[in-house]
Amino acid sequence: MYSMGQHTFEQFAKEAGAVYHVKRIVLVNTDIIDEYLENFRDV
Questions:
Q1: How far apart are CA 7 and CA 40, in angstroms?
Q2: pLDDT tens digits along 1-43
Q3: Using CA atoms, how far apart are residues 42 and 24, in angstroms rounded to an integer?
Q4: For 6-43, b where at least 16 C-beta lie within 10 A, e where not — what string?
Q5: Closest-CA residue to 4 (of 27, 33, 35, 29)
Q6: 19 close to 40: Cβ distance less than 8 angstroms
Q7: Phi/psi of residue 15, nearest 5 degrees
Q8: CA 5 to chain centre
Q9: Is 13:28 a contact under the CB 8 Å cutoff?
Q10: Helices 6-16 & 30-38 angle (0-180, nearest 10)
Q11: How far is the C-alpha of 26 from the C-alpha of 33, rounded, in Å?
Q12: Which of 13, 19, 26, 42 sits between 20 and 30 A of 7, alpha carbons compared?
């Protein structure tokens, strides 16, 4: 979906604050990551 490796995706998710821990499950809010990645877009 994002054309990047898992490690890079995890780093972006953490930097964006899009990671949620629910018991032993880790959830990532992709809407937050999309907004975060828009900041790097060339116009």
A1: 18
A2: 889 999 999 999 999 999 999 999 999 999 999 999 999 887 7
A3: 37
A4: eeeeeebbeebebeeeeeeeeebeeeebeeeeeeeeee
A5: 33
A6: no
A7: -65, -35
A8: 12
A9: yes
A10: 90
A11: 15
A12: 42
Length of the chain: 43
The tokens describing 6, both together, are 């898992």
Place of tokens 């949620």: 20
In the block, residue with structure tokens 């990671």: 19
